[in-house]
Each structure stands twice: as structure tokens, then as C-alpha cells.
């Protein structure tokens, strides 16, 4: 069973930055795409960004140019660098494997104040 452990969230003012990390247990990390997702209060969980095993990235339109997803295969970790944060980015952020979803981790709370 894959374990996903997210960290790095916090409270930041609009325009600020945060870097999220997701540590993935097991040997499947290197060969699989990874993704970040978020869920705001009262809303459904939504896709934020993905990165393939070869490093190709994709983003939801609202975060393009502000967020950057990256991965370190040696550390089994995927990152999400978030710049120019907006209040509408406030959510619990999760990582998962978009092509073979595993049980969700606890997520990490990101709160952006106006």
C-alpha cells in the first residue's frame, strides 16, 4: 500500500509563496506520474498539477504561471512551488498518483489571507 505524506502548508498573505512536499513510500514512485490536488471548504477536490515520470508537467488554468510542480526521484518526493498566492488558493492540498490512485493522505492546509 502506497503511503502519501504531505507537508509544507501554512498561513500566508496574498502574493506570498509556499512550497509543498509529498513523500511517497514504496518503489513505485520513479515509474509513475504524480499529481497535486486541492479541496476547498464546501467544494469538490480538484486537479492542480501533474508531472509524468519523464518530467512533463500540466496545470489547471488558474495556477499556470504561478505554481510549479517538480519531483526528486532519489527522495521519492514531489513538490509544488506556489507563488503569487491568492485567497482562492485556500484549500487542503493533497498528492496522489493520477494513473493509479491510492488512499489519500492527510493533506496539508494552505490558507491565503487577503
Total beta strands = 10
Q: Detail the poorly predicted runs.
A: none
Name the average pLDDT: 96
Helical coverage, percent range: under 10%
Note the total helix count: 0
The class by helix and strand makeup works out as mainly beta
Major beta sheet summary: 6 strands, mixed
The string of secondary-structure elements, in order, is: EEEEEEEEEE
* Strand-residue proportion: over 45%
* Spatial ordering of strands, largest sheet: 2-10-9-4-5-6
Nearest-angstrom radius of gyration? Answer: 13 Å
Q: Span from first to last CA?
A: 39 Å
Q: Give the overall shape, derived from the CA principal axes.
A: globular
Task: Please tell me about this protein's structure.
The chain has strands spanning 4-7, 10-13, 18-24, 34-39, 46-51, 57-59, 67-72, 77-82, 91-96, 108-113. It is mostly beta strands and 114 residues long. The strands form 2 sheets. It has a 6-stranded mixed β-sheet, with no helix packed on it. It has a 4-stranded antiparallel β-sheet with strand order 1-3-8-7, with no helix packed on it. The N and C termini lie far apart (39 Å). The model has no long low-confidence stretch (mean pLDDT 96).
Annotate the secondary structure layout.
Blueprint: E1 4-7, E2 10-13, E3 18-24, E4 34-39, E5 46-51, E6 57-59, E7 67-72, E8 77-82, E9 91-96, E10 108-113
Parallel strand pairs: 2-10
Antiparallel strand pairs: 1-3, 3-8, 4-5, 4-9, 5-6, 7-8, 9-10
List keywords for this structure.
four-stranded antiparallel sheet, 0% helix, globular, 47% strand, single chain, 10 strands, 114 residues, mainly beta
Amino acid at each position: 500500500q502506497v503511503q502519501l505524506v504531505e507537508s509544507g502548508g501554512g498561513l500566508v498573505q496574498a502574493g506570498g509563496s509556499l512550497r509543498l512536499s509529498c513523500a511517497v513510500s514504496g518503489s513505485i514512485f520513479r515509474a509513475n506520474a504524480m499529481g497535486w490536488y486541492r479541496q476547498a471548504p464546501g467544494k469538490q477536490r480538484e486537479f492542480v498539477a501533474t508531472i509524468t515520470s519523464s518530467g512533463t508537467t500540466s496545470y489547471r488554468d488558474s495556477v499556470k504561471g504561478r505554481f510549479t510542480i517538480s519531483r526528486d526521484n532519489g527522495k521519492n518526493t514531489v513538490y509544488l512551488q506556489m507563488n503569487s498566492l491568492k485567497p482562492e488558493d485556500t484549500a487542503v492540498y493533497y498528492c496522489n498518483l493520477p494513473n493509479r490512485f491510492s488512499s489519500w493522505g492527510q493533506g496539508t492546509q494552505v490558507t491565503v489571507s487577503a
